[in-house]
Specification:
Length: 329
């Protein structure tokens, strides 16, 4: 049924375009061009707790769909923090994170923006970890004043990974080759069209070591963790909530409503304080578990069925727990 609707909408738009009848433009779905608006999820008080979902891969790339463009996660979060700066009644921000991480730079930008927001406003920042808050997701969480994990949260993966596709075997089967004319022998380092050299491996290992130490240093700066626990954490393994609490990665185990209460307590807010969220469209029966920022439309007429780690990521360095990648709206 959905496929028929998509085909019908597409056919109608193509017919209108062919007839020169596409003006004025008709927007079928909300997208990145729509402004954020504040919606109350609960409470009646004057003071507010702002809920910001951090969902999926952490990236600064926008997502082009058939009838709209979704804003990149970095852009979306920074926009919400800028909007919150203008509302003096927002005294606490709760980040609801469900993310396996993402690019090194995008994770670091969000971390830094949260720190700057705290310094500028004096607001309390609390993190509520949901299904997965690993690697770059945890990196972002380190900027918070208090970290609470759901009892079944997977977290940790404190480390960096360099990923690059390698299609040399496929090209050999197809009889295809790529010639690279370069000014220096390392100019095409990380190319998916050939195997990596020993020299390149040493360079990449050095970069990974530097970025990995940067992550570990963030953990040292924000968490009270013993040397023994840090040694285990530095292996980049993941932990369930109870062991994460034991190691010092989190402050508390609890559910999302408890995280909201904790944010109110830390900010000195009354229990009737409003919990608000910024969205680009309104949802009926909205509540704190809804992580969608705008009403859904049609993503694409053609779904290749490829996993997102093959279609959504280019060669680069990531604070990412790769097994946690999944396609989420």
């Amino acid at each position: 049924m959905k496929q028929r609707i998509r085909i019908w909408i597409t056919a109608a738009l193509l017919a209108a375009a062919a007839a020169g009848c596409v003006s004025p433009q008709v927007k079928l779905f909300t997208d990145a061009t729509d402004p954020l608006e504040s919606y109350t999820l609960s409470g009646t008080g004057e003071k507010k707790v702002l809920l910001i979902p951090v969902q999926g891969i952490i990236s600064d790339n926008s997502k082009d769909e058939m009838f709209r463009t979704r804003p990149g996660l970095v852009q979306d979060i920074v926009s919400q923090l800028e909007m919150a700066r203008k509302d003096p009644n927002i005294r606490a921000v709760l980040f609801k994170i469900d993310s396996p991480g993402g690019s090194v730079t995008a994770s670091d930008i969000i971390y830094n923006e949260i720190k700057a927001f705290k310094e500028d406003t004096g607001a309390v920042v609390v993190v509520s970890m949901m299904n997965i808050t690993a690697s770059g997701g945890y990196y972002v969480a380190l900027a918070a004043d208090h970290i609470m994990a759901h009892p079944t949260t997977m977290t940790g993966s404190v480390g960096v990974i360099f990923m690059r596709p390698n299609i040399r075997g496929l090209m050999n089967k197809l009889g295809i080759s790529v010639d690279a004319h370069k000014s220096g022998r390392n100019k095409d380092m990380g190319s998916p069209f050939r195997d990596i050299t020993e020299e390149e491996k040493k360079v990449i290992d050095s970069l990974i070591d530097t970025l990995g130490k940067r992550f570990i240093q963030r953990v040292k700066n924000h968490r009270r963790i013993s040397a023994e626990a840090l040694e285990i954490i530095a292996t980049a393994r993941i932990f369930l909530a109870d062991e994460a609490l034991e190691k010092g990665l989190i402050d508390e185990i609890g559910y999302l409503p408890e995280a909201i209460d904790r944010a109110k307590d830390l900010a000195g807010l009354p229990q009737n304080s409003r919990v608000v969220i910024y969205r680009r469209s309104e949802f009926p029966n909205d509540n704190v578990y809804n992580s969608i920022q705008m009403r859904s439309g049609s993503a694409s007429l053609v779904d290749l069925g490829l996993p997102p780690e093959l279609t959504g990521h280019l060669t680069g360095f990531y604070y990412l727990w790769a097994p946690g990648i999944r396609n989420r709206e």
